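To fix ideas, we close by showing one paired sequence and structure record:
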Amino acid sequence: MLRLNHEGISPEFKKDQKEYYFVTDNKIDNLEITAIPENPDATVKITGNNNLKIGKNLIEIHVISQDKTKEDTYKIYVTKTTNIETANANLETLAVRESLLNPEFNNNITDYKVEIPNEITKIEILAIPQSQKAKVSILGNNEMKVGNNYIQINVIAEDGITNKKYELNVYRRNEKEQIQYEQEKQYQAERLSAILEEEQKAKSNIKANEIIHNKNINIFLIIGIGILTIIIIIIINFIKKRKIKFL
């Protein structure tokens, strides 16, 4: 677990996420950090969280295993500023043409995965910052090799100091995977078409049954009216005969 005594750290903590960002005003000089390792016997050392200066600061959290053979370092890039608005290095929009980000874009998430077809060697990325005066640069989007590719999107805020890094893990399918993907896509399309066709048939059958049902009701209604009419005529004739007889 990693937590500050002030809200605003970005992104949300994940044990595999090693870099974080925090912007604060000039009233805060020290940050209290709670860092709890998975192994209670591991050692945690925190540096850089006191005497924050105006501008960019780096806080490092070192997690050292019990046997001292492994060490993980988490970094928090802290901008202390008199104008928080000029320290906005968030993206407003991040999208890849003809592909979907996993997970769905959220400016508080910095790592994404994308899968692209085998025939694509360069992807088109739309990266728009929240601040119109921020600058965006994209690295690693030249030649997508088969397999995993890593693209880095850097956002530099208006103040020229604050930055935030977004990363895309782009997986380009090989030829065999592409064929399998297209076959699966075709299968799913046919399956969806069959389901829709069955639903349409079911709706048509329901409608036809309703028509037949209504037709039968109309027939029975006509027959009923006819029978009732005959009965009324018989009654009327009977009454007339009775009157003639009595006369």
Q: What stands out?
A: The two ends are 111 Å apart (CA to CA).
